[in-house]
Design goal:
The chain has 18 helices and 20 strands. The chain is of the alpha/beta class. It has a domain of 319 residues: Trimethylamine methyltransferase-like (TIM Barrel), CATH 3.20.20.480. Strands 10, 11, 13, 14, 15, 16 and 17 form a 7-stranded mixed β-sheet that branches. A 4-stranded mixed β-sheet has the order 3-4-2-12. A hairpin with a 4-residue loop joins strand 19 and strand 20. The chain is globular.
Length: 479
């Protein structure tokens, strides 16, 4: 986990915040939000909110009362306590890509498999820059649909000892995640006291929460496990084309979902989620790593702080099909404002390709390098007498060089960030070593990391209990 102690980059004036505040209040009151779950409608109705069919017209002051019940910050425990994280404040936690059905290895693009899922989990465990493999690092299409969530959660629990995300395909899958988490951490009481899994609840933008996501939200919030309430907005498709309109819609959707979590269980941990980008107005295709998404990201950080909530956004997003220059600069266009905004939970930090359709092995490594470099860049300078290096000037004098100075010799191992992927070889040496580009070097690194991977230790009794649960539930689910 990284502590981002740099000042936040705030782009909205007080007047702008006030205008956005008027906008979401009007949208929530006059247009309302649709909830495709009878339990949610009943909770809002009992709380005195106006409900017409499946649309809830929310009183903004009521919503703010509910939002105020959510913790501003909370801890998330990992199987290895050294890998536990804090969500909120100046803390930033990073998870890998989430949701791609396809995988890219070098020139090959294919369906994701369970072994790919395990490999990405192993890579996430290996790289200290990542706090989590995330959740659905890739969809394991070679396993039965009804029970694959069991295999995924088991892999995250045993191949890593970091925090992990819960499955949200249905309430049943969420309940299985919670049950397996209880086994891993000893009891329901243990995970309710300190949450142990975090889950993504996406809004079906515009202004609709669908039944499957709500089923999962009920399970997780009732168990005091944090949920990331995230509007899924591509401007021009799921929201109007203007950034302010998208922000107003995002606030309305996120706060309405957060209010529901507090009705389910007051004080349940939540994260103000954001997934904000735009479409190509010529083709209609989603685009990522755009200036508009960067601006929206910076605004979201300021908005979440305005409401006193931890927030999720950012990642190494790109529309590129391969790990090329476009993939690199678009990923940085999203990751840099992620740090400037101080996002607390960063999904898609490593491996995202082709608009999120593909989990890329080489891109995974490239993104880890980016995250590590940005962590280094966003670490405040320590300025003291020793760092002024006056003694080095005395030793070297005029017109000399500092390479062999004592000040340099004492610090050369740690004075600069050392990239594990980038090449600074001269041309001749680079040619002798095979003239490898970044993607080629990244391919060699992930293969080496997988070859060297060692699973973190886990208690045999716990492993056996998890295996028994997976076996039993697989049969019950008909697979």
């Amino acid at each position: 986990m990284f502590r981002n102690r740099m000042p936040r980059y705030e782009v909205l004036s007080e007047d702008a915040i006030a205008t956005l505040d008027q906008g979401w209040r009007r949208l929530m009151t006059e247009i309302g939000v649709e909830f495709m779950d009878d339990r949610a409608l009943d909770l809002f109705r009992k709380a005195g909110q106006k409900v017409e069919e499946r649309t809830v017209f929310l009183d903004p002051d009521f919503v703010l009362e509910q939002v105020a019940k959510a913790p501003r910050e909370f801890d998330l425990q990992a199987r290895n306590p050294d890998n536990s994280v804090h969500i909120g404040g100046d803390a930033m936690a990073f998870g890998a890509v989430y949701g791609p059905p396809f995988v890219r290895q070098g020139e090959v693009r294919r369906d994701g498999t369970m072994e790919d899922f395990r490999n990405f989990s192993r890579l996430a465990q290996t790289f200290s820059a990542l706090d989590s493999a995330g959740g659905v690092v890739t969809e394991p299409n070679d396993t039965p649909l009804d029970s694959r969530h069991l295999d995924m959660i088991y892999a995250l629990q045993t191949l890593t000892d970091k925090i992990y995300m819960g499955n949200v395909v249905s309430g049943t899958n969420a309940a299985d995640t919670i049950a397996m988490t209880e086994i891993l951490f000893g009891s329901r009481e243990s995970i309710e006291q300190t949450p142990a899994t975090i889950s993504l609840i996406n809004c079906n933008s515009p202004l609709r929460w669908d039944d499957r996501m709500l089923e999962a939200q009920f399970e997780y919030s009732a168990a005091n496990q944090p949920v990331v309430l995230t509007p899924f907005i591509l401007m021009g498709a799921m929201s109007p084309v203007t950034i302010p309109a998208a922000l107003v819609q995002q606030i309305t959707e996120a706060l309405s979902g957060i209010a529901l979590s507090q009705l389910i269980r007051p004080g349940a941990p939540v994260v103000f989620g954001s997934f904000l980008s735009n479409i190509d107005m010529q083709s209609g295709s989603p685009t990522f790593g755009t200036p508009e998404s960067g601006i929206g990201l910076l605004c979201t950080g300021q908005i979440a702080r305005h409401f006193g909530l931890p927030f999720r956004t950012g990642g190494g997003l790109t529309s590129s099909q391969v790990p090329d220059a476009q993939a690199g600069y678009e990923a940085l266009m999203t990751l840099l404002p992620t740090f400037l905004a101080g996002a607390n939970w960063v999904m898609h930090s490593a491996g995202w390709l082709e608009g999120g359709l593909v989990a890329g092995y080489e891109k995974f490594v490239i993104d880890v390098e980016l995250v590590q470099m940005l962590k280094h860049e966003f670490t405040p300078l320590e300025i003291d007498e020793a760092s002024m290096a006056f003694d080095a000037h005395q030793e070297v004098g005029h017109g000399g060089h500092f390479l062999g100075a004592m000040h340099t010799m004492e610090r050369f191992r740690t004075c600069f960030y050392r990239p594990f992927l980038s090449s600074s070889e001269n041309y001749e040496r680079w040619m002798r070593n095979g003239a490898k580009d970044t993607a080629t070097r990244a391919g060699e690194i992930y293969k080496q990391k997988l070859a060297e991977y060692e699973p973190p230790p886990i208690d045999d009794a716990v492993r056996e209990e998890l295996e028994a649960y997976v076996t039993r539930r697989r049969k019950e689910l008909g697979d």
